[in-house]
Specification:
Elements (H helix, E strand, L loop, with lengths): L9 E2 L10 E6 L12 E16 L7 H13 L2 E8 L10 H16 L6 E5 L10 H12 L6 H7 L8 E9 L2 E10 L12 E6 L5 H14 L15 E6 L13 H23 L7 E9 L2 H13 L1 H8 L5 H9 L11 E6 L2 E7 L2 E2 L4 H7 L4 E7 L5 E8 L3 H8 L4
């Protein structure tokens, strides 16, 4: 997957620890039966951070989300650390909030901060009580090993059915000061639009007020994570949070303007590429799908229509089979909750091997099936749609639907 290049932004190493003043770590505490799998992670800033978060829209919310919301409300949007476990979602449990709060207390004791200054997150199986003893026994080891170099250990700790770690970071300038922004994400299945979609932790050393941090996060999530779908299931535990410690020394961003737009663009690049990494690593996936829809009358129409195509199980299955079936794409557009003129729609399918126009003005076209199959055999497939009803465009991301998706989820609890 190629990184989108933008003038004034440089991709750097370090993930969630690329920004100054942040450290991280991960370890195996025993929640996961695999002794080689990290299942407990931490991210820490040596100074208190302005913090913003967006949460799942599922009515069933994990206890960690409830506790994190309370903590950020209590501190006025401030946090020092993130503590997160995998394997167990700590959701739909009578003692869930108690266990989530205990994780905050254990972390706070080790870091000598208040429990309210801790963001807590969990991912894994729903409906099973979270054992707190393994976390308590290993929290000291976890904190003792904090280091800017251990971002990969933390990224590994949040993986569930993920096959690869997901990290990205950029540097850019604000008011003559070099700022860095980076993050890590997890997610492979149970991913569907309408935030949040996965666990995502982002850090920056830029100085940004809590209100502007929240605004930037909501605006960027709308056109990145909320345009992502793997399987149509919105999870119960997912969140995106961003911590800003101001270590870069720029003048704090407190209102919209040039610096705010530059910061938001850096956040967009990080969340964009984490979104694409999540889509490419969908459970059982063999192909990353990117739908670019242009010619819409407004952004809402563009996003809704593009997501309808990406969410279609029939479209996803066709892409798995390298079948250039424009009927499935038109069908998905047709049931999208938007007004469109089907007699104007063009559809083109593309990859590194070339492109093929499969629909013009709402009508299917003749084309070489052999050439089309070759184009769709690549690992990144681009679906280009032109509604020809305006000047607004949007993108959505997903993956193909394969036999392995069913295999993975048929025995997930084991």
């Amino acid at each position: 997957m190629q990184l989108q290049q933008e003038t004034g932004y440089e991709y750097i190493e370090g993930g969630v620890c690329a920004a100054a003043g942040f450290s991280a770590n991960g370890c195996h505490c025993g929640l996961d039966a695999n002794p080689n799998k990290n299942d407990l992670g931490i991210v820490y800033s040596e100074t208190l951070c302005n913090t913003a978060a967006v949460y799942t829209t599922n009515k069933v919310k994990g206890a960690p989300i409830i506790v994190t919301k309370k903590n950020l409300d209590a501190t006025g949007g401030k946090a020092h650390a993130v503590i997160v476990n995998s394997k167990n979602a700590n959701t739909c449990n009578a003692d869930g909030e108690e266990k989530a709060w205990q994780m905050c207390e254990l972390t706070a004791q080790q870091l000598r901060i208040t429990p309210e200054e801790v963001i807590v997150a969990s991912t894994g199986v729903i409906g099973q009580s979270l054992p707190i003893a393994p976390i308590a026994e290993h929290i000291g080891q976890l904190v003792d090993g904090l280091s800017p170099k251990s971002h990969g250990e933390a990224a590994a700790a949040i993986m569930t059915t993920d096959t690869v770690k997901k990290e990205v970071a950029v540097s850019f300038s604000l008011g003559g000061k070099t700022c860095r922004l980076g993050g890590m994400a997890k997610g492979s299945g149970m991913i569907h639009p309408n935030m949040a979609t996965t666990l995502n932790f982002v850090t920056t050393d830029a100085a940004v007020s809590p209100d502007m941090l929240q605004k930037a996060l909501r605006d960027v999530v709308k056109v990145t994570y909320n345009c992502l779908s793997v399987d149509g299931d919105t999870s119960t535990n997912d969140m995106v949070c961003i911590l800003a410690n101001g270590k870069a020394g720029n003048e704090e961003i407190t209102a919209e303007g040039e610096d705010y737009e530059r910061f938001k663009k850096g956040l967009y690049l990080v969340l964009l590429h984490l979104t694409k990494m999540l889509a490419a690593d969908g459970e059982g996936a063999t192909k990353l799908l990117e739908c670019t829809l242009k010619g819409a009358p407004d952004l809402g129409t563009a996003i809704t229509a593009a997501k309808s195509v990406i969410c279609s199980s029939l479209v996803k299955s066709a892409m798995f089979g390298a079948d250039a079936n424009c009927g499935r794409i038109l069908c998905a557009l047709g049931y999208a909750d938007v007004d469109l003129d089907v007699t104007k729609i063009d559809v083109e399918l593309a990859s590194e091997k070339g492109s093929v126009l499969v629909c013009k003005d709402g009508n299917g076209l003749a084309f070489s099936e052999e050439a089309a199959a070759s184009i769709l055999s690549e690992k990144e497939i681009f679906i280009h749609i032109d509604l020809k009803q305006g000047n607004v465009s949007a993108k959505a991301w997903g993956c193909d639907l394969t036999y392995d998706y069913v295999k993975i989820n048929a025995d997930y609890r084991s």
